[in-house]
């Protein structure tokens, strides 16, 4: 039995390597580099992810997208930090879901009741993977928008002494958060190599944020020689109001558990007072008898 199992493993491995050569699948190193290039953390790609990426690269050659959808997806992937084409990104989601679906085939013979669970898991995995770039871009956009009130207030003060937009961005970059500092790095490098206005326009298009669009509009006005001091004063006032609104909405999202703990603490205080009152009453009654 052991010999048959060992022979089966060797046969499966041999067939895989033959198919990999015939289908011209990318090497493990290539697939791993593609996965690791888009990661912001220090974790390296797992072996399973590398195998899935190899299949995704091969499948991506058969995926067709219209020009608008591909352009939009490429912009989202670039802004979110994914170093892959839209075709490979879509193929990776399909490959990962397909790998889970393959597990449903033996389940049909051994555990039929488990097959629907794997099918549902495959569908959920596909939608999770296909939305991952949008979710990361949304989180990045929210981090940057959280810094914009302070950024606008800094520009408002800087305009009293200078109108050098590049210097303002360089100075603020030193104290910016990681996400905003990275974007300002890209922006300032772009401004040094091309037109200031074009660089700011590309910066606005990368993140597609209404708040950032207002800031970029004001900076372009400064470049054109407009008196933008009043504009940034009004913008700072509006952003401060939006910041207060955002903080209030976050405060309203208090987890229910905290409310439960608050109620438990209140009951503990009440029980403490009742215990003290009960002890006093009992001691008074003891004195009477």
> What form results from the Cα inertia axes?
flat
What is the averaged pLDDT score?
Answer: 79
User: Which structural class best describes the helix and strand composition?
Assistant: mainly alpha
Task: Report the uncertain regions.
Answer: 40-45
Give the CA-CA distance, first to last residue.
88 Å
Given the structure, what is the number of helices? Answer: 14
Based on CA atoms alone, the radius of gyration comes out at: 29 Å
Order of helices and strands: HHHHHHHHHHHHHH
In which range does the helix fraction lie? over 70%
Number of strands: 0
Strand content: under 5%
Profile the largest sheet.
none
Notable features of this structure?
289 residues, 0% strand, mainly alpha, 14 helices
């Amino acid at each position: 039995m052991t010999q048959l199992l060992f022979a089966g493993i060797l046969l499966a491995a041999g067939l895989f390597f033959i198919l990999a050569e015939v289908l011209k699948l990318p090497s493990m190193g290539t697939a791993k580099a593609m996965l690791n290039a888009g990661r912001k953390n220090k974790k390296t790609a797992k072996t399973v992810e590398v195998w899935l990426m190899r299949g995704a690269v091969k499948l991506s050659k058969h995926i067709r997208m219209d020009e608008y959808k591909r352009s939009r997806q490429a912009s989202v992937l670039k802004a979110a930090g994914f170093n892959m084409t839209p075709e490979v990104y879509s193929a990776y989601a399909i490959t990962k879901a397909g790998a889970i679906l393959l597990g449903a085939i033996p389940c049909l013979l051994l555990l039929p009741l488990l097959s629907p669970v794997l099918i549902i898991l495959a569908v959920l995995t596909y939608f999770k993977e296909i939305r991952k770039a949008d979710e990361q871009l949304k989180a990045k956009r929210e981090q940057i928008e959280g810094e914009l009130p302070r950024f606008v207030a800094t520009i408002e003060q800087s305009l009293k002494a200078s109108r050098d937009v590049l210097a303002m961005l360089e100075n603020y970059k030193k104290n910016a958060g990681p996400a905003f500092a990275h974007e300002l790095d890209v922006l300032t490098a772009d401004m040094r190599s091309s037109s200031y206005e074009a660089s700011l326009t590309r910066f606005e298009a990368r993140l597609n944020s209404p708040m950032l669009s207002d800031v970029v509009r004001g900076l372009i006005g400064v470049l054109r020689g407009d008196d933008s001091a009043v504009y940034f004063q009004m913008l700072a006032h509006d952003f401060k109001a939006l910041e207060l609104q955002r903080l209030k909405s976050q405060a309203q999202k208090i987890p229910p558990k905290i409310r439960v703990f608050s109620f438990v603490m209140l009951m503990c205080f009440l029980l403490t007072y009742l215990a003290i009152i009960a002890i006093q009453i009992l001691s008074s009654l003891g004195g009477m008898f």
